[in-house]
Amino acid sequence: MILPSNNRFVFAFSTLTIAMTSRAHAHEAWLLTPAEIAALAQEPIPAIFTSYGILGLAAVVGCVATMVALLVEERLRPHFQPLGPLLQSVAANWGPALLRIPLGVMLVLAGTGGLPRHGTAHWVEPTLLVPDMQLALVPGWDWLAPFQITLGLCLIAGLFTRVAGLVLMALVVLGWSVFGIKFIDYAPHFVAPAIVLTLVGGGIWSVDRLLQATDWCAPPADIMPAFWRTAQILVGFGFVYLAVAYKLTQPTLLIAILQHGNLPTFGLPYAVIALIMTGVEIICGALLIAGRLVRPVSVVIILAITFLAVTLGETPLFHANLYGVLAMFVIIGTRWHAPRTTIATGKVLA
Amino acid sequence: MKRNALSQIGPVALVAGLLGSLAIAAPAYNAAHEAPRAVFLTLPETSPQPDLAFSITQDHRGNWILRIDATSFQFTEICTSVAEAVPVGHAHVIVNGEKVGSAYSPVYDLGPLPAGRHHIAVTLRGQDHRALIGTDGLIVAEQTLTVT
């Protein structure tokens, strides 16, 4: 009885996602040369992206692969349980640094124009969070650049980390109101790390720790699990949305980018590679939304975006927000466990 | 036992519903065969369709000057994060396959060019830098210039 209503929701979600993609952009498009753009304008959509039969078959294969992965996880889970205490220790100690330092560097670089989109000179065009959101396009919002730099420095230092997480959330909301609907491409993948920052704080290598203010502005313990799940759902939603907006409904763009990067195809046509990438991204996103296989899915996504970044010659800092939040998913797992510091505190004897 | 089975069925049902509905919706959407909207701004058929040509002359300093003749198109210096599908924007100037600059008015100074043959192309862009596509495809004009 539950499944039909769930499926109605899922169908509505899918349709809405396709409907919302009409003004979508992505920084990868700027990698293409003028000749590649001219060729892309005439490129027909590959048949496998217009065929009900092939996409239906791909959906069945995706479902079977998901079932197999869930069964394998069930079998393997006991073998990984001994890692629990170690991961708990990492989460409480230096784990948060994996999120806040790269994210802070990303914000500082964006605010200084050090993370421009392909084809734009460095240190010329400050952006908001990501290369596509050039502040020059929105007159009157230049002050966001120094604001962003300050926020980034706080994150790098681990100063008022939880507050910085809340401010980052506010910055995303502001970005959406300034840049409009196209900000949906990035919003979920920045709100999620912001939520995680408010949950985990700065960790041991932080000014917060020196000030003994690690619990300052911590959310109430009873709502932390809900916040943790919200972060997973947001990251999952972001991947499903991007897969539909940029891969499933603009496959020729994805194929042009793969050809531009000379991505190894292992003998498969680029269209098939594009379909596999699309399916994997949708399934990974859906599993994060469902809160299942969170650790393996996070590892798969980290490897995939690293592979693509290396292939396309992009800096990993373009995805520092994702690396950080996915690393925290790997460390903490599906369910929220309040990290407990394992390093003993005490007086230093002279 | 029942809970365990549900925990397996739930995610599979979500994935099945999502992939199934997309397998139905995507072919219908892709059947329009539109150029990728992340890169291209397709002008509606009801919109005036720009016509593009250009001439190249050398000024007294030795610089090569492009005079872009774009009918039904309005040049503007104003760029936006999202543009409407209207024939307003700027032009990209491409020399030998490399974009060398943006022309925000019909006259563009290419500067001096070394001796040899140069393939020069001009494409029209919307205010958000996406390439304009008209009813006949990408709006582009090309010439080969030989500098002696």
List the helices and strands and how they pair.
The complex is a heterodimer of chains A (350) and B (148).
Chain A: H1 2-19, H2 34-42, H3 52-80, H4 84-92, H5 95-112, H6 144-157, H7 161-179, H8 187-200, H9 207-210, H10 224-248, H11 251-260, H12 270-290, H13 294-312, H14 320-332
Chain B: H1 2-30, E1 40-42, E2 51-58, E3 64-71, E4 74-75, E5 88-95, E6 98-103, E7 107-111, E8 116-126, E9 131-134, E10 137-138, E11 140-147
Parallel strand pairs in B: 1-9, 4-5
Antiparallel strand pairs in B: 2-3, 3-7, 5-6, 5-8, 8-11, 9-10
In a few lines, what is going on in this structure?
Chain A is mainly alpha-helical. Chain A is 63% helix and 0% strand. Chain A has helices spanning 2-19, 34-42, 52-80, 84-92, 95-112, 144-157, 161-179, 187-200, 207-210, 224-248, 251-260, 270-290, 294-312, 320-332.
Structural description of this entry:
The complex is a heterodimer of chains A (350) and B (148). Chain A has 350 residues and is mainly alpha-helical. Helix content of chain A is 63%, strand content 0%. Chain A contains 14 helices and no strands. In chain A, helix 7 (161-179) runs antiparallel to helix 8. The radius of gyration of chain A is 21 Å and the shape is globular. By secondary structure, chain B is α+β, with helices and mostly antiparallel strands. In chain B, a hairpin with a 5-residue loop joins strand 2 and strand 3. The mean pLDDT of chain B is 93. At the A-B interface, helix 1, helix 2, helix 3, helix 10 and helix 11 of A face helix 1 and strand 10 of B.
